[in-house]
Amino acid sequence: MKPIRIGAGAGYSGDRVDPAVELAEKGSLSYLIFECLAERTIAIAQKARLLDSSAGYDPLLEERMEAVLPVCAARRIRIISNMGAANPNAAAEKTREIARRLGVRGLRIAAVSGDDVFNLLRSGNTDIEKPEGPLPLVETWLSANAYLGVLPLLEALQSDADIILTGRVADPALFLAPLIHEFGWSLSDWDILGQGTVVGHLLECAGQLTGGYFADPGKKDVPNLDRLGFPIAEVSPDGAAILTKVEGSGGVLNRATCTEQLLYEIQDPSAYLTPDVVADFSKVSFDQLAPDRVLVQGGSGRSRPATLKVSVAFRDGYIGEGQISYAGPNALHRAELARAILAARLDPLQFSELRFDFIGVNSIHGPQLSPTRPAPHEIRLRAAGSAASLASAARISREVEALYTNGPAGGGGATGSTREIIAIIAALIPRESVSHQLRILES
Amino acid sequence: MLLHEIAHARTGDKGNIVTISLIAYRSEDFKLLEERVTAKRVTAHFESFIDAPVERYSLPQLAALNFVLHRPLSNSVTRSLALDAHGKCLGFALLALEL
Known about the structure:
The complex is a heterodimer of chains A (443) and B (99). With 443 residues, chain A is an alpha+beta fold. Chain A has two domains: 4-116 and 147-304 and 435-442, no CATH class; 312-426, Alpha-Beta Plaits (2-Layer Sandwich), CATH 3.30.70. Helix content of chain A is 29%, strand content 28%. Chain A is built from 13 helices and 18 strands. In chain A, the strands form three sheets. Chain A has a ten-stranded mixed beta sheet with strand order 11-12-8-7-1-2-3-6-4-18, sandwiched between helices. In chain A, strands 5, 14, 15, 16 and 17 form a five-stranded antiparallel beta sheet that branches. Chain A has a three-stranded antiparallel beta sheet with strand order 9-10-13. In chain A, strand 11 and strand 12 form a beta hairpin. Chain A is globular and about 70 Å long. Chain B has 99 residues and is an alpha+beta fold. Chain B has a single domain (3-94), classed as Gyrase A, domain 2 (2-Layer Sandwich). Chain B is 19% helix and 28% strand. Chain B contains three helices and four strands, in the order E-E-H-H-E-E-H. A four-stranded antiparallel beta sheet of chain B has the order 1-2-4-3. In chain B, strand 1 (7-14) and strand 2 (17-24) form a beta hairpin. The termini of chain B are close together. The interface between A and B is large, with 51 and 41 residues.
């Protein structure tokens, strides 16, 4: 059996589109995967769907599909993505419309749903474990989605789908499913599923494997980040994979980039929980075979958890923010005076928390970890607060703006914003209480 | 000498948890990381950000340590008032540690 080449076309919803086109054109791929769902993305999409029942999928779906569909269709590259977000069916319909418009006929487009467990959770007809504490009032909920595993994706692949669009699916499963499908791996061969999960985890953030989020000039230099190439995994039937990228693309792929990404967002490396396997990353090794070619092996696993993780998104009040700059002689003292004015004007009873920062001094690492240095030439004062009501949160940007005419000398560049907080809490439900649905359209 | 001279790091986040990998540029320096950058020391370093002891995992074949920081729940990504709500800049605070 030949190795399978899988490319990562996006690492988040707003990611660059041109590297995906480059992968489709020059990557000799069998599969192109777009991972586009962060924790809150579905809740934001659900808000859009509530306003318009044909909305609620990834905002860049159209742009991405228009860019890659013709070349993927011509080269028989299958596309798998969670760009369905809160509305996989609408995403599939939109994709069919784009395919027809571009003259691409006969494409099979699958929509995977069933991750939306909002009504199930609300009905109380399932056991719920609450590892992060009690769930908030149901009235505040925006969405509740279970992390599905490879099963619906395998069904879609067996139905000869060319494009698969899902809502919430565990990120590595988007990559693991085509490997299981191609190589006929057993769904209870935990070690191979663990190694496949390593490959999926390494690829799911796209450019973060090939030199993105890595450069530290003089210490870790990365060439041509402006045209960073996205990663490809050339996976063998035994799960070992060579990680690479399109020749001539920007970025770098070496043991250091791979090691950073292997541990990215990982807690205990020996127990990475997914719906399909508890993967063990602790014995993974990387070997540099050639420039931009790294062999990864050594992933293993244990039996999958009995429960599925659910992310419940809920409305949790508002955050208001404002910023204003001071520069030149005595800038820090003028900024400190402005802060004192704001602290006196903003009624602490209206805010559950208030915070002031001097950007450029200690706003990021905090007072304890920011060494005292001579006062910088320019200071940006930032005020932020959380409040139960929009009106209270909006006081912050108003009070910061009012510093122009009522505050210290020489304030400039005031900005402000107010936004709703969409918070996330995790719960666990038995996997038996979740069922998926598959719908296939043809262009 | 700052940790930044001999090691690199990447920061990730999940809710109120921040993870920081710490990787020696040269595998022969890994022993020094293991000896000097203890969970206890990293806990003290990030005292103002966390409300539980830091956990440390060791991956000798990669010359890497992995740290797990628990921030208060009020400081999760979605609720934090910090400019860097994710805590993504904290890896470089670790690299500023004096060895």
